[in-house]
Write a structure and sequence with these properties.
Layout: E1 2-6, E2 20-24, H1 29-38, E3 43-46, H2 50-57, E4 65-71, E5 74-75, H3 90-93, E6 97-101, H4 105-111, E7 117-121, H5 126-136, E8 140-145, H6 154-171, H7 175-178, H8 182-194, H9 198-204, H10 206-213, H11 217-223, E9 233-237, E10 240-243
Parallel strand pairs: 1-8, 2-7, 2-8, 3-6, 4-6
Antiparallel strand pairs: 3-10, 4-5, 9-10
Helix pairs in contact: 5-6, 6-8, 9-10
């Protein structure tokens, strides 16, 4: 297995896709997606364009859909939800499809949607994703961070490093053999430096500070937890993620 980490969708190689691609947007899209499926959502369908989200979701009965839209950290007017995983309760999600568009995370998923296997990962389901990789043994794996509007983000890279670090533990492998690019080595180093202070890292990260200004303190606390959900959002068809297994 060779693991390649890319900080943003824009930094991925063009004209190729891996055997397995993992989209990461810790704050907050992939955290929200995993939480929604854990809470009983039928599926999560992702869009980069809000107009397309509205159009497609109109084909679903109102009682079977939820629209989540976020731009700049705030809820999009006219949507049921923003992008907070704390809104994903069983009472709200049960049996419904979550149609979601966010500033960054949904773009990462769309960039890699042609890969043979597409997953969504965050700190909260890190170990479940690692277990999936160990079981499936894909030859090439990309972890694609969402960043912020095309630029590097601390939290996504730290999460990618957390996945790589746990994968090394699970397989007994060496970082030099696993790493397909220098970014993978750097991401593991970043995670190991901050692994016991993930909430502090998020408070220092530029998007974490943006969310703090929006008074999303509890969201950061939730997103900083590790391995609390045993669930892997897996793409069933382009743009549609369901609970693995």
């Amino acid at each position: 297995m060779k693991l390649f980490i890319y900080h943003t969708p824009e930094s991925t190689p063009t004209g190729s896709v891996p055997d397995c691609a993992i989209a990461v947007d810790v704050l907050r899209a992939t955290t929200t997606m995993a939480t929604a499926l854990h809470a009983g959502a039928e599926a999560v369908q992702v869009f980069s364009d809000m107009d397309k989200l509205i159009k497609v979701s109109e084909e679903w009965p109102a009682e079977k859909r939820l629209r989540a839209g976020e731009r700049g950290g705030s809820k999009v007017a006219g949507c049921d939800l923003g992008n907070s995983p704390l809104d994903c309760t069983p009472e709200l999600m049960g049996g419904r499809r979550l149609f979601i568009s966010t500033t960054n995370g949904t773009r990462s998923l769309q960039r890699v949607q042609d890969a043979a296997s597409v997953l969504a990962a965050a700190f909260i389901n890190r170990q479940a994703v690692v277990d999936y990789l160990v079981a499936k043994q894909p030859e090439t794996v990309w972890i694609v961070g969402s960043g912020w509007e095309g630029s590097f983000s601390l939290e996504d890279t730290a999460c990618a490093g957390a996945i790589a670090d746990s994968l090394l533990t699970a397989t007994g492998g060496q970082l030099g053999s696993l790493a397909g690019n220098d970014e993978t080595i750097a991401a593991v180093a970043l995670y190991r430096q901050w692994q016991d202070r993930l909430l502090e890292l998020m408070h220092r990260a530029s998007h974490g500070q943006r969310l703090l200004r929006l008074e999303c303190h509890e969201d950061l606390k939730y997103c900083a937890q590790t391995d609390i959900l045993d669930i892997v959002p897996v793409q069933r068809e382009p743009g549609v993620l369901v609970k693995n297994g």
